[in-house]
Batch of 4 targets.
Target 1
Amino acid sequence: MLSTYLRHTIRHLAKDRQFSLLNAIGLSTGLACALLIYLWVSDEYRVDKWNVNDSRLYQVLKSSPLGDGTLWTHESTQGLLARSMAHELPEVEYAVSFRPQEVGVVTVGDKHLKATPAFADKDFFHIFTYPLIEGNPANPLSDPRGVLLSDKLAEKLFHTTTGLVGKPIDFRDGDDAREFTGLYKVAGVYKSSPANATLQFDLLFPYDLYWTQEADNLNDWGSHGESTYLLLKPGTTIAQFEKKVRFFAQNKIRSIYKGDQQKYLLQWEGELLAQKFSDRYLHGRYVNGMPSGGRIDYVRLFSIIAIFIVVIACINFMNLSTARATQRAREVGVKKVVGASRGSLVMQYLCESLLLAFASLLVAVLITVILLPALNSVTGKDLSLQFSPRLMVAAISIAFFTGLVSGSYPALYLSGFRPALVLKSNVMQSAGAAGIRKALVVFQFAIAVTLILGVMVVYRQMQLIRTTDLGYNRENVVRIDNEGYLKNNLAPFLTEVRRLPGVISASDGNGDFLGHSSHSGSGIGWEGKDPNLSMEYFGNDIDYDFFPTLGLKMAEGRPFMRGYPDSNSVIFNEAAIAAMGLKDPIGKTVSLWGKSKQIVGVVRDYHFESLYKKVGPAFLTWHANDQFTYVRIKPGKESETIGAIKSLFNSYNNGLDFTYSFLDDDYNALYASEQRVAVLSRYFSGMAVLISCLGLFGLAAFTVQRRQKEIGIRKVLGASVSRVTLLLSADLLRLVVIAIIIAFPVAWWGAHTWLQSFAYRVSPGAGLFVITAVAVIAITLLTIGWQTLKAALANPVRALRSE
């Protein structure tokens, strides 16, 4: 019986090659898109899931009050917090403080390698799954002068991962060359973080070492950048635990401090909350202290797109199959007359649908393999099509579901024909079937139009990001890490750099304009300050020539200049002066974390964070020998100038790789996720439109076939080619217009919701909708125009002679 079904299926598919090909292309394209999205979504969900104790591993976050009455949720907690929680909260099995550092330089013999260090408490390996290759398994971080190496770094330094305990290494700290620079001995080797881990570091120092160096800062309940991780005991209810820890730090402050110090700390040290560590990657956005999505929004978006694309492919199949049903009416009638049951007919047509779906799946797998390198290039991932049981089950399930759903209605529709009626006529009309086909066309094009509008909104927002005046000029500015021995010789290095022919200006600075500051907090006071006012400030240390190098503009006053005692000077931005309520600020004195500073200038507002946030209060202080060197290069001289800078760099850091980045590339990296979403959206939306047009093309071809005699009669009676073309196109074009009308409000709502996360955003005005409508109508006319024009130009005699 099954072989009979297969034989009939193959015969029918071969007979209707045009429609079979259209169905196969639509289904395989849809399934390939779904497979590609599945691979990406699965990888996103796997990030940080590698820890054995994932279900009990949490990170403590803090919601701090800002000056505008809102809350800022971040990872910076107190150095005392982890140890206090471990001792005082019975729900906590282990708690650790973790402190990542800037990239430093590790030296062994004549090898100089860049490496990312971090400091961690002794129980770090009880919480996180980093298998030790060698070292003290009970307490690998017990030696204050010992350091743990990742297996990758150990291989680079020693060409082995064993027998290294006790080996000396020299480490030069990238953040401050005097703090943690020195000789250490290898205390062990651990397996590196997996590729899908957000915690990436190359060597691990004991937190006790950091505590010794920073005791003055860490022995109070002010935050200084530590991350706090907890391993909760089995059975802990997270909702109850969060209630317990909410005011943990504030209660400590109230019990230890009095007066102004207590008041100041309470203004900044906000409420605590606990988030599952592996959820932080996807659910990383908080608005006013409440979870507000994050990357999970894009994961959900593309999951929905995948579903929609498969649905559109199914709709194509149903439309084309039901449209062709009239051509098979007599076949159904004859089979029923000779005794075929409705059930056997349903099985035959479902067999056709499932066979086509699984054949399309094989083609889809081939398409996926071909397109996977392009997807990896766009997403920055290393995805591979590995036929794991999970993937195979998912792919087969999608194909089976697609074949079953897309073939169910045609099977039921065809098998329901009554023999007496269908054998009396060549054509079987069904208003119900035609109505369903029209509804499905409207539905699939409504989805396609919504996706097109979404893509255009994302594109315009990305254009806004690229063209917004940031308050500084990021073009042709190179940023170099002042690492290794360079930091101790920065002044002569900068002097030589400024002499290079292709250099316009050069300076150094701490932090950047990409969301990383030298200083942040609310510890600024001035005469007349409202005691209840608490504002978060963003502060950067900069050297002379920073203003011309970055193109910052002064609103009043002066920048830092040689010959002035600027070590006690400060420059605020316009937003800070407005928030402080200062009039005629030049010359006034402020208290900056207990140090007296004189305002010498006001810089025009500049964007020091992403466009998700409005420009807030910021200040600049003078400091030499900073973390980065910024060099403005003459346009057209980039290659030779960078080569000359590299030679200078190597003369100070012999053997250390020279790395640099352009500031505009660093800025664009802030929106890497959005850029990738924009590109992926264009591709997948294009696929959705392509699949929809394939269905429309098939329906247009069917319409032309069904109305051949009508067309012939009209042409004999004098109808023009344009009149016939319009007649044939009108019905399908009307459906597309209805789809556009339905899609517009849905697309506007989606775009408006997405844009709300940006402080600076485009407005999806009427022009965008008009352009989309015109584009979709044009695509529709191109899709069906060839078929209708071909029919209108055909010889009417041939159509009237056919039976």
Target 2
Amino acid sequence: MERARAVVIGGVITGCSVLYHLARAGWTDIALVEKGELTSGSTCHAAGLVTQYNPSPTMMRFRRYSIELYRELGVFETVAGARIASSAEQLQELRRGVSRARGIGMEVELLSPSETLERMPAASPESLYGSIWVNEDGFVDPHTATYAVASAARELGARILTHRRVTGIVRGPRGEVVAVQTDQGPIETEVVINAAGLWAPRVSAMVGAFTPSTPIDHQHIALEAVPGHELPRDMPCFRDPDNLVYGKSETGGILFGGYEPNPAARWIDGAPWDHGARSLPPDEERFAQLFEGAARRFPFIRNAGVVALVCHPDAMTPDANPLLGPLPEIPGFWLAAGLSLNGFGGAGGMGKAIAEWVTTGETEHDVTAYRPWRFGDVYRDPQHAAEVARETYRYYYRLRFPLDTDQLGRPRRVSGLHSRTQELGAVFGTKNGWERPDYFTPTEPWRRAGEDQRVFGWAPPPYLDRLAEEHNAVRERVGIFDLTSFGKIEVTGTGALELLERVSDNRIDKPTGSVIYTQFLDHRGGIVSDVTVTRLADDHFRVVTGAGAVDTDVGWLQQHAGPSVEIREQSAELAVIGLWGPQARVVLQAVTDDDVSNAAFPFRSAQMLRVTGARLLAQRITYVGELGYELYVAPDWAVQVWDRLMEAGEELGITPCGYRVLDSLRIEKGYRYLGTDLTAGDDPFEAGLEFCVAAGKDFIGSEALARRQTDGLSRRIRTLLIGDGYVTAYGGEAVVHEGRTVGRLRSCAYGFTIGRMIGYAYLPVELGPGAEVTVEVFGEQVASTVVDDVLHDPTHARLRT
């Protein structure tokens, strides 16, 4: 039997990059298996543009490294790149983009219309508002670049086996990978990296896993040169999001493609094995809108002859992020798939990251957002996964305002309280398939939010007054929330406590009924999860996390669990009602005979209560900084409990509230949000969560934290008051001190109690309370002040009494 230390499946650019970087790390007994020739999938049809700007710091670094790799191999052409604004709204988005780029360490230039035309004279001045300019952007020839990376891997000892299709993957007694079956015999191995592109879901199915990656048709056209309008080879690459197109010059003519707002998904049950390098019949009617967009920017192309109109599918995930890393339940099986149009741009960095992870157990950059296990069972339905993938493709260029909401594939999951919140005028957003109220409009019918911000643009949202009402209800009276979308993970078994102690920075071994706030950390001390853990019995725990984080957290626990632990995601099994505000105890006591006084039911504890015949678990915990409870109840009792609470609170002014107001409430209290304020690049000491780190405890990341304590902190999260009144900041904006960018806003919201815009940013430790900085908002420097972490009730007396 053949043997290889690792087998990479798929001869796409990313597969070749993984192979090369494994070989460069010293793994020479490795093989890549490809069912056809190299580049015989989407790779061969790519335009090959490699641009650096991306709102994700990790993807930006991947793209920077990709350019370095292609230059090293002699296959990269640097021509610079322009991202064009063809509307006033897009210009504002570009201004946001410049600030966000500076905030993550990338210098870009914002050009005026005349400056743009100086550098790209072939463009039309019509509806030209400006552009972002990146000097180091360029392109590769897809075929040449892929073969160059493959040749470099071969020179280091790697094998490339073409015209050999994988037919199965053999697993051992622990479910681990032991061999790859092919149509030319098996290859024994302990590591398989699925880089099969369009066919990645079918390869994952060979080990019983699912990969939510959908082929979405993508079209581009090559046009002949137009006499008198021949384009130089070094013309900058261009992206014109308003017109939905990107492109570059090619042999004097132009090659451009784009992103239709009505994309077509295909092969949602699996791409056929015999599809390879061939293109598909183009849809000229659908492409016409892209041609018109390109012609608005380059009118002369209307006289160009067509070389070829190409249609080919690209693999899109539900969030347009790639799938990178191991699958926790299948030892030895890795993914580098679902590239979502990040192929050549990200391939170098993604291949390097996978090789680092496989060979050392860690990656240089934070890849938390790309974990392949982040999508749960709701995406096992290929039709739903396809609809959400179409949504992400639709907005790949179309201006997506920060307050807009996904529309396709809805409704998918509704809580037991959905009808009640409908009756109350809910405006529903969506998270991980759940319909949940963003806010309420009591005098109007319920509806699902969508492109709402397209109506009011970059102005303050028209529902601010309603958010103020919901905010004030929680601060002054009592607010009631449908929190059913909370992620809930049951952890049981004789090894449950040991597992949770190992992954948590806080101490979990506390009496039954305790609610513990904690983080899960990686080996470098970075925050990968932010949860509460409730001890229900000696060997029975419930982990509560965000709706979007639950599948990631399940995977993290599975990675570290032993055989004596059972981990079960139970989000849909329990409805959750949030009851928060100074009158919350009065309302709750009115509907139960159980004692909920402060002495009987203290802060950060949980106990069973009976309400209107229902037995439910109440947790005294808060995300808004007020007295209150989370009530966990069977869905078939949720409406009865909700109705009793509403009835009991009527005279007290109980108010239904949505998720949007949580940002305002929590940011006044110094509470953090996972994914923006807390990432794997931040540790608990930097994040102001040192109170969660149990002294003397051994847990994943504890050694790294101890070293950082010894070395001292260089930065810390700080609270900023930004400008006066409401400021249209959304997060990501650069923070500047004495002319130097020192950080970026992680999150921000208007604090209705404080009456100011509040933001969080990681800043050098010397910039403590009292320091003056500015925040770059749409190109303007807004005066801001560093203040204390907690602005409302800094002693926390309101939530403890």
Target 3
Amino acid sequence: MNIPAQWSKVIADIWRYKARTILVILSIAVGVFAVGMTINAGQIIQRDLNTPYRASNPASLTMHLSPFDDPLASAVEGTREVRVAEPRREESAELDRGDGEWMEIGLAALPDFERVRVNRFTLESGQAVPGLRQFLLERMSADLLGLGVGDTITIRLPDDGRTYDLEVAGIVHDMHVMPIAFFEQAAGYVSLDTLGWMGLDTHYDTLYVVTENQDDKAHILEVAGMLRERVIEPAGYQVYSVEPFEGEPGSHWASGMISGVLIILTVMGLMCILLGAGLVINTISALITRQVKQIGIIRSVGGLRRQITAMYLAMVLFFCLVALLIGIPLGLVGAKGLAVAIGGALNFDITQVSLPLSVALFQVGVGLLIPLGAALAPILSGTGIPVYDAIYQDGNITTVNKGAVESVLGAIKGLPSPTVLAVRTTFRRKARLIFTLVTLTLAGATFIGAFSTHRTMSAKIAGMGDYTQLDVELSLPGAANRYTAEREALRVPGVGLAEGWYQTSARFVFPDRSESEEVIATAVPVETATISPHLIAGRWLEAGDTNAIVVNEDLLEKVPGLAVGDTVTLWVGEREREYHVVGVLSAHLTGARFYAPYEFFTKVNDAGNLANVVRVRAAPDRFLSGPEQEALGERLVKRFEDARLGTGTFDTQYDLVVSNMGNFDILLSVLLLMSGLLALVGGLGLAGTMGLNVLERTREIGVLRAVGAANPSVRRVVLFEGIFVGLISWLLAVAGSWPIGLALSNVVASTVLNAPADYLFSLRGMWLWLALVLVIATAASLAPAQRASQLTVREVLAYE
């Protein structure tokens, strides 16, 4: 086949420098892979998360009421603003895990399992309708517990400790339950007849409401207020709490969080391509520098500049096309893996993995335009050199003026010669050095920033956990006398301090008589020892306070504009009363709430000396370990059962705080995955740079060999140069990690916790990156160093 001369040259250059070609292709392919993985995964997740979620007809709001029957649900559904109102009975119990441990399980009873209209779930195996002494188990709970259809489990009721054996009649998938891995609560569904057999009330206590306008949260809250005032309370029923939909109406509660994280990952993927473009610039610049004479000769015999430019652009185009052939399929595989991992964690199915045309075109666009655009500047610069200068210029010899580095090295006595030579040659090609340093610096800054983000989020959760200055929190559904409850708790071996609190729900009443959604009202002793208030404004409660309250940051999200000094109207139970905001606490893990002085709040709200929460500590100066807290909680439950104060449930500090930190390990792993891709591109860039440097210094290496330099000495020069570049990039990465880590922390905190976070730098990440960058630098320099040590005098003399 007769191939034109210019294209033969392109093919020859690509084949002659195979190692360099592979490095450039891989660096571009990594970026194409990263971008395709994150964008495609995002589309797959949003499709398979929100589409079936909307199809399940999610409730616009959930209302917890005093016991009611079907006529009330029909009356609510008969209002103009409501599309569907479906009642349920919700009970909390404990499930025997089979290993001697008990797990909390939520049991929901529905009026008609064959016609579920709100928050629908799907049958996976077994039967759809549970019979007497049977129940349906949510699939994540079944997987965690290792249960299947036909298995029998033991359920324990919290009030009196009675146990019942129930058969698993079916396994269902319910997207509306919180993942059991995050919240450690199983989910099951029983008939009202089974609840009656267990001795429980068979009246409904929860109403799921779907409003006509499901996209306006303010409208949904207005409907909730209207239903309370015009339908529910006039019928003689009490509204205990109202839970509007969290997040954007019509979207899964985790949709916004996932989108925020995927945006971060997509930006990091684009950074991979940009860094790969830096290697393209270095490679093309070095190639043109070495081929200046060839360019001059081609132009002297009639070759046009545009023809020469097309030759080098064709070479870059080849790099891009091969990279796309590698990166696009791998991006599809990565998208499937990422989507399946997130789907498994959040309990939804990935139905189909495909490559949308829009994603493929985006990958092609960035995979072509960014490298070609990056290469255009050195190509135009190199092909524009005058013919005379091109022919009579030696592109392989660079005059190096003695600069600051050489002056400093000259002033330091006793440095090994390979070290001095390595440092000097490092700064010879400053433009190439800059591109290499930018690549490694961004990779390192992102790596350290990911660790700093994890440390920041862990500290944020720990700070939010100041609310849990306790070992165990015992909840008493029926409430008990505060002083009796504290006395019984102190009788439990290992308890050194006990505090009784009273919690209920409340609503803010605005001047236009509209109401907020439900928030938690907490009556606490003003001298509490089980909370460490982190005030961001105002003060904490003081002895003698009456209608004073302290709100937390979470509540400010529900009631925007609230500030210290404001007078607010609160509806608590059946009473409406004014309160003064005296302080604002930082956000913590228990949601929107306010705190009021115990004596005053319980008195004016007819709660007397009741307590429905008992918080205990074993010692004032330390916390128990997780297993110790669990054992203490079980002793508390047993003591209160024996004292006939009711069977409560408990949470430990470990459950409330420490286990939550583990959830961010998943996010850290994903961030580190992307940082690893950046590090890979950085390593490829350094390997390419070292290979170019060795190639350009072939004659110099020959001189070293001629004056007696042994192979190990030549290898050390190249290795020291690579390690020195790695060390410089590490110093720059440490400095650059601050703004990158700060940006990552703010995005993650606002996306996941919906709260700001104080940035904390990670020393562990810094030292880990130092170790990793030294490994990268050494690995990237080994092959060029070996090649340099193997150059013979004949090769040096023949080198052009």
Target 4
Amino acid sequence: MASKKTLVIVESPAKANTINKYLGKDYVVKASLGHVKDLPKSKLGVDLEHDFEPTYVESPGKDKVIKELRAAAKKVDRIFLAADPDREGEAICQHLKEILDGNGDKTEVYRVLFNEITPRAIQAAVAHPGRINQHIVDAQQARRILDRIVGYQVSPLLWDKVRRGISAGRVQTVALRLIVEREQEIQAFKPEEYWSITAKLEGHQPPPFEAKLVKIKGKTAAVANQAEADHILQNLKGSPFQVDSVVTKEKKRYPVPPFTTSKLQQEAARKLRFTVKKTMMLAQRLYEGIEVSAEEGRVGLISYMRTDSPRISDEAMQMVRSYVSDVYSDKYLPEKPVIYKGKKDAQDAHEAIRPTFVGRTPDDLKAILSDDEYKLYKLIWTRFTASQMNPAVYDQTTAEIVAGDYLFRASGRVLKFDGFLKVYEEAADEDVKPVEGEEDITLPLLTQGETLKSLEILPKQHFTEPPPRYTEASLVKILEEKGIGRPSTYATILNTIQDREYVLKDQGKFHPTELGTVVTTLLVKHFEEIFDVQYTAKMEEELDEIEEGQMTWVQALREFYKKFQKDLKKATKNMENLKAQELPTDEICEKCGGPMVQKWGQFGSFLACAAYPECKSTREIAKEETAVKEGGAASAESEPEPCENCGKPMALKRGRFGQFLACTGYPECKTTRKLTGSTGAPKKPDVVLAEICPQCHEANLVVKDGRFGEFTSCGNYPKCKYIKPKTVGVPCPKPGCGGELIERRTKRGKTFYGCLKYPACDFVTWNKPVPEQCPKCGSPYLLEKSTKKEGLVHYCNEESCDYKVSVEPQGVAMS
């Protein structure tokens, strides 16, 4: 009996090439290059009157791919659909099935799931094929239609009322709301003074140590001002310090679970300074396969990177426990496997992110991985290995010391057994202050009743601080905690709010722009429930219920649209029209002496003469985000700078290259002055980094603000003239080079991109390389350019490939 021929369809060419090597001659592996069908871009594509029936069309540029897949399907007995094992992958499989259904009854269509790209996992998956899960398809379809309805019906409203080309998104707007509301908290925050009092003491044995005042007459110490601090110091003069109690306890510190998607994004942001987008791009490469050696060929190095479960398989558990025992000895191996429980609402379809073979250490792969791939693989490998090791053990000592009515406390700990810390230690959360006593401080041997010598008593003034601005790591953390979106969507959310100019990222922290604040205020006011944090989380729960078969997708959309339709109707009628708004001000027009009004234009708010069109005088307003970003007061509130030539005040103007200062005596006086910062504001102070200069090995690197924006250089300039290259996350495409593409500038300041290894490698391009694989030919990167006719597009640089796509058309929401 002849063996059956099987067509296997995956998403990417890289994955197809890897899998092709693992399957025999009876298998043909093809790539769909992502989606083959989607909602049309030119219209809503959803029948709101008939149960939200979607109209799918073939994805642009996929004619050739679909033709090849249909031709291949006619020559086989079975089709295995093997898109990524998530909701979006399930939907892709359904659409592939629909376009291949015309091949006759003889062709059996199955769904196979590849949690890792290794010979064992691939062969096991094709040996046990399943069927497409319609509930998962429905959940993805519901999400897609929800986002389409919000994007295509709210965005035009913003075009009409605020500015053309901006957008709203069901989840993106909620993420932006968190950033805007945090900024409002910071602006409204009023610092409060408080004081700490620390005693530097010495016992009968060295070393001297510090103890903090914690209680006054049995109540928690609260020292509000210097007068109270001085009163305490006066009372402590001559007062003996006596050890009241000394307690030493053994304390264990347990390892953390292996990575879920969001935890990987957060840790890579904190430890490696990777953006969420870069982390997911690198993880995709490690999952799809790297050429390991001539014998092994291309091998997937990690399991699937979109998961919210910390579970690992029995086989992986056995593998890592054996490795820990062999390499680190049995004292590091727990008696029983450590089982980690996921969140209550976690989808447990996939394992945690882990190496496919723990015996393949980061050092083994260092020579064949790029620097960034190596760093991410090492992060995943060490976290996974440490998760199955014994806890670290400390001796933690707490001493309480009495001086009259005052109780001081000294805490410290000593590491007895390193346990999992031998391999990995989680980065500290930048938003969480360290817990007292959880620092590696050694206290001297103290005995109860012992009298201590007071060396010094140190009062210190403090002020309460506002909540910190969100970083990529902390924003991902809060999105996950509040159940907003899914980890697989976080990269898109963060990119969208930056691309739409709703936020700026300065020194890794998000600041809302004037536009972002205005859009958020309008949307939250007129769509209070739709863009509510809890409501958005509830919608995610309903999508989970659809996936589990507890609710139909039509039912979920009906409930949503009933409320949304009413809000949309009211907003269309009542939303403020900023384009037509003219707010009176106390400013006087320097040309005609009439009053100035505040208006809204393409670049935000500005001042214009109320006598327009007779008088066309305008004046720029220093943008609030610039003032916040520079850490000073808005320049609109400060004294105007006098012209160096005629003495008249200088005014802030905007030209083709941004904001500048111009004399109000124009045209008689044509004096202008460039603003030194890249944002049109006073130059920012240098920021010293912890990183040491790799060239002179003497000074720290420093972030400076230059005429072309921020750059990082050696703090030992001009003795050392090292400038840190600004990478774009794309390896040099020249075969055998192994370098990385960086941003460079011509002598005239024009930006281009070239290889870090220049002059040994002469690769250059004027257009910005984007770390995204070409879905048509598999090229590891795309180029980005912007034209008046096409707008912003991504295109393939390969001569034989004609792939080109508009980057999410303006006004279309992404969540």
